[in-house]
Amino acid sequence: MERVTARLDCGILQGLLCINKGVPGADAFEHVLMSALKSYSVIWDLVHDAPPRLLDQLVRAWEPRWLLPGETIVADEEPDADFVFVLVHGSCVVLLEDREIENVGQGSVQGAAQLLALNGWTRTVQVAPTCNGEAMIQVMKREKLLDMLDGHPLPKARLRALEQSLQEGKEADWRILKNIPAFGSCAFQPFLARLHKDADIRLFCAGDMVAFAGDDSAAMMVVLAGTVRCEQPQTLFFVELHRGEWCYQDNILGNTPTFGHDAVAVTNVLVLVLYRHAMQNAMVAYPETRKVVIANETWRKKTGCPDFGVLPVFNKLPASLLSDVLEEARPVYYRPSSLLYSSGERVEDNSMLFVLRGELQLAIMGIEVRRIGAGGYVGLHHFMGLECPEPNVTIRSTQACDCLLLQQSTMQKALDDELMEDDMLPYTASQRVLAGGEILDAFGFPVGDGSAKNMPDCVEQSEVFRACSKSFVAQVAEIVEDLAFWPGEKLYSQYEEGDMMYFIRAGRVRLEVLGRRDPEIVEAGITLGDMAVLDQVPHYVETAYAETHVWVRALHKKLLRRSLSSFPEEERCMLGQCSLRRCMAGKRKDGDRKDGKAKKAKLSVEAAKAFFEEHGIKVAIPEGKDVDITPLAGFQFDGFAKRLIKYCQSKFEKPTPIQACTWPLIMQRSDVCGIAKTGSGKTLAFAMPYLSMSRLGQLDVFEQPCASARFVAMAPTRELAMQIAEVCSELVKALTAGDEGLYPVQCIYGGVPKRDQREAISGTGVDMAICTPGRLQDLVEEETLDLSSVFTSQTFDEAHFSDFLLPNSS
């Protein structure tokens, strides 16, 4: 076959290969391999003008391999691994010192330095665990390459010349790092040798991009052989680096988040890449280097690095102990989108991970439950030696994160030291209470009866799930997160959106409600926030503080909804466990909602306080009552009939103070005693909730005419009764579009013949009875009027006159 001397492009190469028997034609995998070979100049430059016979041999030299997700292709420092491979299908992750440093996709070529025997493998390459199906690679060993080039002197000479040009890089050792300023006075042999051993050595061909400006890799690069040009983007400025010179020093120290310039290979080059996490491993192995390196990390001073000593778990502990904790803590770095821990994995060595900067995402079953920023931590329970289930959260970094691994062994040494027994009392007290031990005051005496308990099955035994199946409850127990709170810390605030349900496993929680004088104390076994999570109320109805050290198991609303999607009947069981009073406080109705969304116009907490102060309103709630006293900002409210809302909006600008305060309470079916001036809208305050509940089906509607009133309002005088009846009639007209017969209003008072009132009741019926006390008593006694159906709406206007008007009544 005729020798081809011109440079072949990919299409010609494929055409030549198709001539030979046994070689597939336009196969998808072959296309990927051809494209990778043509773009990979290490191999292509050897054979680009070779005869077709050699090109055919080149393709046949590659061996296909299929690998499963998570399977390792090659491991760091693996012996006798002098091969190169092309990723033909799938995706891979590159690991260095058990940390992900790179993701590679289809067409990627790995192992050029190893193929040329310049260096062993310095990285571990695995098929990505998330790879969809098997991955395919094509492998060529150095032995096959040499055999293939025998009899072809020109390609063989090129290979030899390439290897010789990079030979000085192969001979480089730890001494090439001695002059790097970042390591300063700690540049001694064992430390630098560890850095060199844990570095990644890469081969780049002339023209290859070594690094890109804007890359967020926390690494620096040292040239081992060849020349690299550093180019400032969008300028003509550049600097050339030769053997022993470096760039991106601020990136490995964390002072600069991204590379500030491009790096391009001018010749074939060997580059040693030092990563931040590998440098930190060397610092841990040689603690004497730590202060020197950290002194060069100027970001710690510029960003206001948080102090772990302010965490509640370290409160009141001696400064000497905190100094030891810091000294023995292990610095760790995670690049963006790194997987820190999978579900079921605890922090190594039962340490506590403290975030210095960056952000972590915590997810359960793929659903994000919360995020942790600077000053946050994970792994507290195991750090304190508490018996805690294995964590079920998956933790990833959303940003570049610098953290500290606070060692449990440091705390254990202090606990074992008898001389520090008194100093460790705050810490041991938190351990004791969280484990269910006695609750003691500052003098060591029991608080209350001193009893405490730890309920590992607080989820399974919760009243919320009493009527649910065991299989459902068992599933829920697997998707909760264990959290700890110290005395005074807030679990949640009143009026916050209810995203979390809290099952108290140990300790006591104080519940405070705006307007309620005395707080409520609850203990282990109680569930908090269930009504808000189950959408029975629009938000948390109290503020929860840790009264003691508290261990809670938190269930996110999204996770509960996901569980209910597999057990739809369980939601009815849970709602059935809710008391009628609390259910009605937040019950949703669809009667007057086109889009199914509740209409609310409540004030915020701050606005509510300002409203009460502005109008001189004082609210008192009897002990044991649990109601939402937030006033309304307008007429829109979940449960009000739409026609009544429009009626009010057409006649009034906004609710009066007595209306804004009493409407939410009455709609929760709470007894209300309200005091306001004449003309302040008290009639509308008590009449509008009743008619709305009737209209929306929350009360049974009787067929008229009927002598059984469902609403009774008593007034001390005839004039006042007539005024109330007039307002009620106007509301009925607005509600029924003029059909007053649906909710007949009867004004019953003395001083006129009873006959007319009897005929009105028997003729048109009565739904709302507006009465003076004497005539009401007469009609009830003669059985003209039936009050047996008055369950929810009884109003006493000018109630301070009641004893005078009915002195013998109870």
From TrEMBL:
<feature type="domain" description="Cyclic nucleotide-binding">
    <location>
        <begin position="313"/>
        <end position="415"/>
    </location>
</feature>
<dbReference type="InterPro" id="IPR014710">
    <property type="entry name" value="RmlC-like_jellyroll"/>
</dbReference>
<dbReference type="GO" id="GO:0004386">
    <property type="term" value="F:helicase activity"/>
</dbReference>
<dbReference type="InterPro" id="IPR000595">
    <property type="entry name" value="cNMP-bd_dom"/>
</dbReference>
<dbReference type="InterPro" id="IPR014001">
    <property type="entry name" value="Helicase_ATP-bd"/>
</dbReference>
<dbReference type="GO" id="GO:0016787">
    <property type="term" value="F:hydrolase activity"/>
</dbReference>
<dbReference type="GO" id="GO:0005524">
    <property type="term" value="F:ATP binding"/>
</dbReference>
<keyword id="KW-0067">ATP-binding</keyword>
<feature type="domain" description="Cyclic nucleotide-binding">
    <location>
        <begin position="46"/>
        <end position="149"/>
    </location>
</feature>
<dbReference type="InterPro" id="IPR044742">
    <property type="entry name" value="DEAD/DEAH_RhlB"/>
</dbReference>
<keyword id="KW-0347">Helicase</keyword>
<keyword id="KW-0378">Hydrolase</keyword>
<dbReference type="Pfam" id="PF00270">
    <property type="entry name" value="DEAD"/>
</dbReference>
<dbReference type="InterPro" id="IPR027417">
    <property type="entry name" value="P-loop_NTPase"/>
</dbReference>
<feature type="domain" description="Cyclic nucleotide-binding">
    <location>
        <begin position="464"/>
        <end position="564"/>
    </location>
</feature>
<dbReference type="InterPro" id="IPR018490">
    <property type="entry name" value="cNMP-bd_dom_sf"/>
</dbReference>
<dbReference type="GO" id="GO:0003676">
    <property type="term" value="F:nucleic acid binding"/>
</dbReference>
<keyword id="KW-0547">Nucleotide-binding</keyword>
<dbReference type="InterPro" id="IPR011545">
    <property type="entry name" value="DEAD/DEAH_box_helicase_dom"/>
</dbReference>
<protein>
    <submittedName>
        <fullName>ATP-dependent RNA helicase DBP3</fullName>
    </submittedName>
</protein>
<feature type="domain" description="Helicase ATP-binding">
    <location>
        <begin position="663"/>
        <end position="810"/>
    </location>
</feature>
